[in-house]
């Protein structure tokens, strides 16, 4: 009986059928990038806000003040009495009642001198000129509550982490396309609920669930794409990353046009419902069917692929070699039981962690270095496009391992140099920082490809999901590490990023080269890769 790769070669390794499925599933990269980076725009800092004095709302209604007039009456005496206070996190320790004059409420402060005005910390009742522009103004994530914005991104990554374990396992047990479709439905429903969340608790719960299902869509679509093409066409795993980058470039345009965070949330969530139409055009992975002892269904799909590609399978292809490796419910022990699998797993887990922490850290750093957020975000996405092109040029010529190592080391050196460059040469500092962003993007994209090539079919989805869960752990840590260390010294996070990246670059040199090698079907195949 012929092997699956032999049948695939005769049916067409990257014909019209695979190109159609590939293009359709690539759209998932766009929507996943929306979810992955949307906090930058959902959580924009409100441009102008202040703490409202108790009783000010009633007084405003009685006096017919504009918001600007109320702000002047509230903040002006605070600034006169304490020039270091902006009125955002502190207010005058008074209560305005019916005795306060509409024309001159400042007389209410009596004979207190400006230097002796009593202040109180603000814990609620903030006023925003644009109250629904972001989740910050919607849920009062300012001052002592500012850390909760970091938590909202951490909880999304926690959802990614949970999704990697649960849905990665489910995709290996119940099928790639089933879990993909259920995940798309879940992302859409949870995204709509997030947009209309009545409070921050509901927002966080369904943002977590959106992360769970979002990870399911991304990982399963990636695995399906790599499993239906030949070994020489697995560059599609890199090309799909280009669509992720396109999503990053599109997102600032959506945020610029849509004035409210709810509108942005709906715009990035609703497209997921369209992916449910794939039920009729994207088949189950025939490789997965073979591992589940469903050779007849796999062969039927292969005949369909050949027909769409304008080819014809030989009559003797009445059966395909079924993986003889015993199929069981995958577990972490399966990934570390043998020497080569254990080494691959540990290095890949660290590679995912370092790449994600550095990548997300550099993306979020855009929000604290100033500039035009929409333009800077677009440019940061455009910078990633050459990364995919460089990978496509190098991986089939010199392999996976060397570009993987060099990109990490270059990213580390660039972060270190950027940290110590003076501010009076901004163009040079920006150039080096851009080089670092380009390099870590290359590393982040290569780890996807290498991870799928270093696990057998029976463990591939679970292995990719488990290793990439460290990516989500890096994403959980990234906002806290970035903002807490930047408060000490703005460039301190770059020093940490540098150490992590260089260490990763050295470790990946220990991985086996997979250039031009068929996807391993069994654990034994993986053990032979290093030979």
TrEMBL record:
The keyword Lyase does not apply. InterPro entries: MFS_dom (IPR020846), MFS_sugar_transport-like (IPR005828), MFS_trans_sf (IPR036259), Orgcat_transp/SVOP (IPR004749), Sugar_transporter_CS (IPR005829). The keyword Zinc does not apply. This is Solute carrier family 22 member 3. One of its GO terms (cellular component) is apical plasma membrane. Its main location: membrane. Keywords: Cell membrane, Glycoprotein, Ion transport, Membrane, Mitochondrion, Nucleus, Transmembrane, Transmembrane helix, Transport. Pfam families: Sugar_tr. Gene3D superfamilies: MFS general substrate transporter like domains (1.20.1250.20). It comes from the Eukaryota. One of its GO terms (molecular function) is quaternary ammonium group transmembrane transporter activity. It catalyses: (R)-adrenaline(out) = (R)-adrenaline(in); histamine(out) = histamine(in); tyramine(in) = tyramine(out); L-histidyl-L-proline diketopiperazine(in) = L-histidyl-L-proline diketopiperazine(out). It is a multi-pass membrane protein. GO terms for biological process: dopamine transport; histamine transport; monoatomic ion transport; norepinephrine transport; serotonin transport. Belongs to the major facilitator (TC 2.A.1) superfamily. Organic cation transporter (TC 2.A.1.19) family. The chain crosses the membrane at residues 21-42, 154-171, 178-198, 204-225, 237-258, 264-282, 347-368, 374-395, 402-421, 427-450, 462-482, 488-511. It is found in: Apical cell membrane; Basolateral cell membrane; Mitochondrion membrane; Nucleus outer membrane. NCBIfam families: 2A0119 (TIGR00898). It comes from Colius striatus (Speckled mousebird). Residues 74-515 form the Major facilitator superfamily (MFS) profile domain.
